[in-house]
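[INFO] parsing input record for Urocanate hydratase
[DEBUG] input buffer:
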Amino acid sequence: MNFQQQIQQGIPTELPQPKPYETQINHAPKRKEILNEEEKKLALKNALRYFEPKFHAELLPEFKEELEKYGRVYMYRFRPDYEMYARPISEYPGKSLKAKSIMLMIQNNLSYAVAQHPHELITYGGNGAVFQNWAQYLLTMKYLSEMTDEQTLVMYSGHPMGLFPSHKDAPRVVVTNGMVIPNYSKPDDWEKFNALGVSQYGQMTAGSYMYIGPQGIVHGTTITVLNAFRKIKKSPKGGLFVTSGLGGMSGAQPKAGNIAGCITVCAEVNPKITKIRHEQKWVDEIHENLDELVARVRKAQEIEETVSLAYLGNVVEVWEKFDQENLKIDIGSDQTSLHNPWAGGYYPVGISFEDSNKMMAEQPELFKEKVQKSLRRHAAAINKHTSKGTYFFDYGNAFLLECSRAGADVLAENPTLGREFKFPSYVQDIMGPMCFDYGFGPFRWVCASGKPEDLQKTDEIACEVLEELMKNSPGEIQQQMQDNITWIKGAQENKLVVGSQARILYADAEGRMKIAEKFNQAIKNGEIGPVILGRDHHDVSGTDSPYRETSNIYDGSRFTADMAIHNVIGDSFRGATWVSIHNGGGVGWGEVINGGFGMLLDGSEDADRRLKSMLFWDVNNGISRRSWARNEGAIFAIKRAMEAEPNLKVTLPNFVDEDLFSLE
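[DEBUG] output buffer:
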């Protein structure tokens, strides 16, 4: 069968031959044993229900072995024989162009060039899954190939519940991931529900089919690094940025450091992912010896070199060695996946990568002790540097939260509501007040033709739009506009594409709508092929996350999730092609609710209507919430939005004179 026929077949009518376990692939670590015997039986029943009873006797021992060996039933036998990557949209079978766009994005998320653990259907973050098993993938792709624009596919945590009668203005796919009852949202609950095959951790853009490789965070990281140096009033040139994590999203950090123009040292314990990032030219050099690393950094500082250095080892060793050598770190952070601390998101110092993987599966309580001990040591080393003037910020993967739970010295001496930690979240000090409050967030698009020339044309269109908008932009957002123009002008030379022909830039509602409108016109004129719009959930409106996206909300509403829920509901009836809502993305199961969307532009008047309706809401919903929290930048932004759109009427806050409280 050819590619199209394999997609249309779905789950094969005859069992394919078992596939060998490919050791050269970067695999997910073994998950700890958490099911009792009765629950293991249930997990196997749940897996077998995808297949006709005549296959159960042959599949049962195989699935049982997977469950015992890996802690999950992945159904490796059913991995497709075709190569996994984002093909041009014209190569997908189907009746709906919108459905084909979703197939393209699913395959992009699982591409070997993009996915962290492709055989386990995990895109990034150690546990950010597109599907729980290969049967779900096969069945979903089959449904999408059959779908018309009068149907909607309903996805329950990777499971395709089915195609339902719908209408053309409804989303073609509605996705939920991990939406468990709140009292069952602890890390071990995820382990159990995922092992049972009934829920999954969709991260942000993994389970919503909108991941575009590390580029998706390069821009935000570049802005963060640039503004961190601005905060300390120092040029990035010759400045030293120390952090950790090269897998998934964190792989963007050394590339962002290069674009910002500083020296970046990024530690990573996984040799495979370190090698991949080096081959992809996302990091310049790999070092395994700390003395050599110190000498290399000193040389780079002397000549003010822009360079990114990967240290294959534990970041705690870097912080401690640089302290001993009195090597000045200007800005520091951490982007290990501490939303997933006990299952591969963070590796303790002093234990090898291989031994850690074994311990987390076979001795989970001991592994937890080692992680928490390492976090205490990690924080102590950071504190030594900050006492010398290093600016440290939490990069939002629950580093400070897990440090505090481990008893590390990270709590503020005089905590206030929203400022519990001695170090800020990068959203609190940088992204929140400088970008999100003004409506600037990670707008992204994918050229569905797969043609690099289409991507270059869209870059040119976006740059023209931003330069025109900047002429009349108020002073409050001039810096944001200029940063984005600089970014898009350098996008081609920085070789940011991994997987699909995709791009990201930070834009506000006006910028997103104008750019999308120009794209749609170019499609109509035959200048480019269809374009898929999207964004990271990490945005102005998409996510309620008290220690990250909404960490600069100080009215007490940080722990509410009304904004994210309203965002996805509003997007669904304003024209999104697909919508998603997740529990857990970015900072951990039970710690956040986040929503996203995808939208196909096909050059039609219908697409023009949808983009204007949806993109306006998608941003201004969040600005409204931020303005009600008394964030001054957001008040400015929503007033400006109301002036531009007479039908928008938002409740504004009144400020209370602080002196009134001193009179009591």
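[INFO] The chain has a mean pLDDT of 94.
[INFO] shutting down worker
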